[in-house]
Design a protein that fits this description.
The chain is of the alpha/beta class. Helix content is about 15%, strand content about 15%. Strands 1, 2, 3, 4, 5 and 6 form a 6-stranded mixed sheet that branches. The protein binds arginine (ARG) and zinc ion.
């Protein structure tokens, strides 16, 4: 795919406290990060180690808040809902009006992003091919965007970058096999790596005989802090492209 594809987004702000009713500036700050990261114009792109610089990809995906609601009327792409639920488990209840959440907009036309008080994770995502009413990504409000309630070290907007990677069918870079060397992310240009990396590792981190360059821990699909992740690879961009050509083809122009 040569052309850039723009994904219409609806952000469901599901709040129990006034603080969780995040401001428009925080939402805009998140969209800005997505539009940098998926176009490889993120300000930290130059930190990619020399050996992998050529592999860093522009995924040619952009995101914009929806301007048309499902009923055809105008919208700002934000749904705000007060909830009696103090904290959501990562069990999809936030995705349904009748469970204290906010129901999805049609998943073939919108990327649904729910922002709420979430227990046990910074975020989670639905892979392509699941039920439409639970499709989208859920992000903890304090790991969303770069301002407002966003809290260090997850105030770089990268939780949404990571989760939307999953939404486009990307797997974790370590292959989801614990600390083993046999799992795969089904992407050829990411080194085989043992387990996940956390914090802000120093280059290189060798595992599974992947020296001298080691793990690509600065990839958005590892588990490092926001300031330590700054690339997708061309192979990952191809995998996202395949999702867009297949199960997510309703987003193509
Ligand atoms: N699902 C992951 C978690 O909850 C998201 C990790 C995102 N990483 C990040 N640096 N923002 O741990
Ligand atoms: Zn993940």
């Amino acid at each position: 795919r040569e052309e850039v594809v723009t994904i219409p987004v609806v952000v469901h702000v599901v709040h129990h406290t006034p603080e969780q009713d995040i401001g428009q500036d925080q939402i805009d700050s998140q969209l800005k990060v997505l539009n940098q990261d998926f176009r490889r114009v993120n300000p930290d792109a130059a930190k990619v180690p020399e050996v992998w610089r050529e592999r860093a990809a522009d995924a040619r995906l952009e995101f914009k808040l929806a301007d048309t609601a499902p009923d055809g009327g105008p919208t700002d792409g934000v749904v705000r809902r007060r909830t009696d639920v103090p904290e959501f488990a990562p069990d999809d209840t936030v995705k349904f009006d009748d469970q204290g959440g906010s129901s999805a907009w049609p998943a073939d036309r919108y990327l649904n992003i729910w922002v709420c008080q979430l227990r046990g994770a910074l975020g989670y995502a639905a892979f392509p091919g699941g039920p439409a009413d639970a499709d989208g990504v859920v992000i903890l409000h304090s790991a969303f965007g770069t301002t407002g309630t966003a809290e260090s070290p997850y105030d770089g907007g990268r939780t949404a970058t990571h989760e939307i990677g999953h939404w486009f069918n990307l797997r974790h870079i370590w292959g989801d096999d614990g600390d083993g060397c046999s799992g795969t992310d089904f992407v050829d240009d990411t080194p085989n790596q043992a387990g996940l990396n956390r914090g802000t590792p120093t280059f290189p981190q060798v595992s599974c005989g992947n020296g001298p360059d080691g793990d690509m821990f600065m990839n958005y699909m590892d588990y490092v802090e926001d300031a330590a992740m700054f690339m997708f690879t061309k192979g990952q961009a191809e995998r996202m492209d395949a999702a867009l050509a297949g199960p997510r083809s309703s987003f193509l122009p």
